[in-house]
Amino acid sequence: MILLDSVLGTIGGSPELLALFVGFGLLVGILFGFFGMGGSFLVTPALLMMGYPARVAVGSGMAFVFGTAVIATMKHHDLGQVDYKLGGIMIAGTTIGIEVGRAAVFYLEELGLAGGIISVVYVLLLGAIGFLVTRDALNGDGGGGVDHDAADKDLSDYEIPEIAQTIQQTVRIPPMVTLRGDVRVSAWVITAVAFSTGLLSGFLGVGGGFIRMPAMIYAIGAPVPVAVGTDLFEIVFSGAIGSYLYGQGGGVDLGIVVPLLFGSALGARIGSAATAVVDADGIKVYFGGMLLAGSVAVGIGEVGSYLGNELLETVGLVLVLGAALIVASAVVYTSLQSLRETRRQQPSVAD
Amino acid sequence: MAGLEVPSWDPQAALVIGVVLFEAIVLYVGYGGLERLVGSHLIDAFVGGDDTA
């Protein structure tokens, strides 16, 4: 009750806003649980469009990612999909990257440019990743997102992507590290990937999963399940460090984070459960489309903000929420359809 | 220039992290318990239960 009062107090005592945050958290949680990434790329731009200062939008987005990652990691820990050696090196590189990214936000904020530049980087990043995921989904080669058949395979069965093989053969600066799945790679490659993704993480207030997971697969050569598990493990640390640093500057608003997490914890369970009954390939195209819609929405919102046009800012916000709602609904609907189909086909199993 | 700085101890920031961590653990345990209690009933309600069996 005290926590609820405190949360209501910090968001201006508005139950509508509280419900909005819980609902938005639910949507993001479903997407995070199903795709294994995308925990926060919608939260920070939505907060920016709602008029929160860049520091609060990024800091609160990061604290939300931290909480969601704790929940997801507890679940994946039991599956044994975490490479702690890889995670340890990634944490070291990411820590420095986050600090540089955070300092950059504070510096840009002093110049009054933070909101605009963060939004532009979001538009470019979401647009590029959205384009790649959509293209791969349409080509049917399974790129982007989590392969839900992954759990059935042995780690040694995973083929190392060509680009990762090239990096492993070219960059052989000692010390070399052997990862789970018998992958041998230079510690410097891991550090470089960690620093780059940490920089984006600190700058954008995201866990970095949607950048780091593909980076671990395509640049380091980690098997998909190891990349997913280790990524989640790392997000716990990077999220905690980032939240602490932003918390020092008063950038974490619990009135935003607590209700978002309340919704996302439930959503993550629904999304994770959905992975057992739905093949992700069919929905990846929606996911890519959602990233593209998010990128367009941030762009529209920024143009509206620049022109002082509130309607455009609202259109941007509605587009972000609408995209998340459509994809999350598609996940739930497809899951229920699959369950119905399964029960129809195997009536005797139920007995 | 974006310079590096060593984070100093800040009880307020640590409390914020602690609250988020505590909430995450409580929600994980709480929703887990709910899922075990009512999960199958909810699935039956949405999917249509044993009507096809």
Please outline what is shown here.
Chain B: The chain crosses the membrane at residues 12-31. Chain B: Pfam families: DUF7512. Chain A has 351 residues and is mainly alpha-helical.
Ordered list of secondary-structure elements with their pairings:
The complex is a heterodimer of chains A (351) and B (53).
Chain A: H1 2-10, H2 15-35, H3 43-49, H4 54-77, H5 84-111, H6 114-139, H7 162-170, E1 176-179, E2 183-186, H8 187-204, H9 209-220, H10 224-248, H11 254-275, H12 281-307, H13 310-345, H14 347-350
Antiparallel strand pairs in A: 1-2
Helix pairs in contact in A: 1-11, 2-11, 2-13, 3-4, 4-10, 4-11, 5-6, 5-8, 5-10, 6-12, 7-9, 8-9, 9-10, 11-13, 12-13
Chain B: H1 11-47
Task: Please describe what this structure looks like.
The complex is a heterodimer of chains A (351) and B (53). Chain A is 76% helix and 2% strand. By secondary structure, chain A is mostly helical. Chain A has one domain. A two-stranded antiparallel sheet of chain A has the order 1-2. Chain A is globular and about 55 Å long. Chain B is mostly helical and 53 residues long. Chain B has a domain at 16-44. Chain B contains one helix and no strands. Chain B has one helix spanning 11-47. The longest helix of chain B has 37 residues, at 11-47. The model of chain B has no long low-confidence stretch (mean pLDDT 77). The chains are: A mainly alpha (351), B mainly alpha (53). Chain A binds chain B through residues 63, 66-68, 70-71, 74-75, 96, 99-100, 103-104, 107, 240-241, 243-245, 247-248, 252, 254, 257-258, 261-262, 265-266, 269, 336, 339-340, 343-344, 347-348, 350-351, and chain B through 1-5, 7-8, 10, 12-14, 16-17, 19-21, 23-25, 27-28, 31-32, 35, 43, 46-48, 50, 52-53.
